[in-house]
Amino acid sequence: MTTDLQLGVRRVLSRNPATSEVLRAFECATEGNIGEAVARARKAQAGWSQLGIQKRLVVLRTFQHILQQKKSDVARLITREAGKPYAEALATEILVVLDAVRFLVEQSYQHLREEPVPHGNLAMKTKRGRILREPYGVIGIISPWNYPFSIPATESAAALAAGNSVVLKPSEWTTLVALELAALLREAGLPEDVFQVLPGDGLTGATLAKAFIDKLIFTGSVPTGRRIAETAGARLLPVVLELGGKDPMIVLEDADIDVASSGAVWGAFVNAGQACLSVERCYVQRRLYAPFLEACVRKTQRLRVGDGLTPGTDIGPLIHERQVRLVEEHVQDAVTHGARILSGGHRLPELGANFYAPTLLADVTHEMRIMREETFGPVLPVMAFDEEEQAIDWANDSAYGLGASIWTRDSQHGEQLARCLQAGAVMVNDAVSCFGIAEAPHGGVKASGLGRTHGKFGLEEMVRVKYVDSDRLPGIKRVWWYGYGAAFAKQMEGFLDMQFAGSLSARVKGAVRSLGILTREGRL
Ligand code: NAD
Out of 181-185, 269-273, 488-492, which region has the weakest mean confidence (pLDDT)? Predict the structure, then answer.
């Protein structure tokens, strides 16, 4: 990392992972800074919420317009700070955010508006019920470096549409991109303090989780997510946890080898494998195993690794050297236990300290770290299976449950198998890309997290549900209030029979016995 202890001030350094050049240093926000930022956010939130959804959406639409105009500059900044190829920054960051705002502009009013609640209970027929969706207040967001723009921007846009203010603690590796997001929102007319960025490291994040926020949306690794959950549990702070994954890809014997191998290579190596939804393990039905591997080798060897700003680059650097070491360890462990390297399997020091060759491993087993732990690097480990049940068992044999994919010419069969997989999202004949569907809920099961972002479920996470009940007969005492008397119990028995007894005659008798319940005397 990049924390520099000097005179008690902690700093984080933003670096270009392709060149290791330091782009800028930031002082970490102190506990005092965080408390003040949250207090300012709380003050600003009231006005933002009262503005009403339509005016808030006008600001988001303006943000969308400005982002569209500045797309190239923002994408280049993302590439400089996070390393991914410029084309990927456009496709997986800018496009995702533009489309998420499109969804909010088109649909958030409909999802957030008041909703009548019709009553079935006969005793409650005089009441009118409504659901209100109210903003939490101040939403804290802690985000990772791998999608430094699209993750905090999509989460923040939903929080803002719902009337919250946001305090964002971005990854220590990608502060510049977060500050760019803040600048774009300000330019779009977002009032001061409604969206604030607090640069800093893990300790800054931990301090934000303890600050006077109303909800926390965390995206990052499982170990950090567990720590956040402990802090949140102690004070019952609502949280969304978007954590790591170990997504399986299952290739059935009727799959198109050319399509599936291209999907595997892209799904495993996109963003140098540093995507929460990337293909982390691949199971291929025996008949296709050899030709599938052969196609993957051919395609992997054609990939161009380099600086993401160089035109034509397919794969950029990893974010930092620690990540390269983790990838190396997983590959080494696999080879020690019998896996074969068909392509890559080594660093690319001639390109820089953080480059690792896209790597294809065959004959892996489920005991290897590469099949059990999140690798988060450009490695595609492949193993063969005979029966579908075996592949489903292996796919589910994981602590994680973020995404999964099934590859087959029979989409219906693929969708059927999708029901058997323990995952937050299953794609049939594609991988990773459902993150880019603004309407699709994103989130995991098991250790991959709690709650959802994106789409209507993501919007629901940004509001408290309040039920408002209003009686239409304010001048009448309710029949179930005190002053029960002897007759009331009989009337109540009849009332229950009238509604729920099995036979018609019992219901009719119940109706007769319940007579007088509405005009019951003696109510206090
Ligand atoms: P990380 O957990 O190291 O850090 C994430 C964020 O948490 C950073 O901003 C960091 O400063 C902060 N943080 C660190 N320690 C903290 C603490 N004790 N309390 C509060 N905040 C703390 O993760 P990372 O390396 O930045 O990101 C990679 C991980 O994120 C991978 O596991 C990946 O799968 C996961 N991820 C998940 C999703 C998803 O949507 N499910 C999306 C992207 C990344």
Answer: 488-492
The amino acid present at 448, given as its one-letter code, is S
Provide φ and ψ at 479, rounded to 5°: -70, -25
Percent pLDDT > 90 in the chain is 95
Q: Give me the catalytic one of 180, 242, 280, 461.
A: 242
What residue's CA is closest to ligand 1, atom 26? 144
Closest CA to 421 of 395, 444, 448: 395
Cβ atoms of 101 and 60 closer than 8 Å: yes
- Give the model's pLDDT for residue 2: 46
End-to-end CA distance of the chain: 70
373 lines ligand 1 (CB under 6 A): no
> Is pLDDT of 43 > 90?
yes
- Is 242 a catalytic site residue? yes
280 in ligand 1 pocket by Cβ < 6 Å? no
Burial (CB count within 10 angstroms: exposed 0-12, middle 13-18, buried 19+), residue 481? exposed
pTM, rounded to two decimals: 0.97
Read off the pLDDT of residues 474-506 as tens digits, 9 standing for 90 and up: 999 998 999 998 899 999 999 999 999 999 999
Distance 253 CA to ligand 1 centre (A): 37
What is the identity of the amino acid at 109? Y
Is the CB–ligand 1 distance for residue 403 below 6 Å? no
Provide the pairing of β-strand 403-407 with 247-251: parallel
Q: Report whether residue 242 contacts ligand 1, using a CB cutoff of 6 Å.
A: yes
Residues ≥6 apart with Cβ < 8 Å to 304: 312, 313, 314, 315
Instruction: State the sign of the Cα–Cα–Cα–Cα dihedral 64, 77, 245, 390.
Output: positive
Q: How far is the CA of 246 from the centre of ligand 1 (A)?
A: 15
Pair of tokens at residue 94: 């800018």
* pLDDT tops 70 at residue 524: yes
Please name the residues in contact with 34: beta carbons below 8 A apart, sequence gap of 6 or more. 167, 198, 204, 207, 208, 211
Residues 199, 178: Cα–Cα separation, whole Å? 9
Contact indicator for 451, 232 with CB cutoff of 8 Å: no
Q: Could you report the per-residue pLDDT of 462-473, keeping only the tens digit for each?
A: 999 999 999 999
User: What is the pLDDT, as a whole number, of residue 518?
Assistant: 84
DSSP 186-226: HHTTPPTTSEEE----HHHHHHHHHSS-SEEEEES-HHHHH
Q: Which helix (H) or strand (E) holds 117?
A: strand 115-117
Which of 14, 118, 428, 96 is CA-nearest to residue 251? Answer: 428
The edge-to-edge listing of strands for the beta sheet with 239-242 is 195-197, 165-169, 138-142, 215-219, 239-242, 449-450
Is the confidence at residue 442, as pLDDT, over 80?
yes
Compute the distance between CA of residue 87 and CA of residue 75 in angstroms, rounded to an integer. Answer: 8
Chain mean pLDDT for the chain: 97
Note the pLDDT of residue 1. 45
Please confirm, yes or no, whether 434 is among the known catalytic residues.
no
Q: Report the distance separating Cα 401 and Cα 424, nearest Å.
A: 6
In degrees and rounded to multiples of 5, residue 489 shows phi and psi of: -60, -45
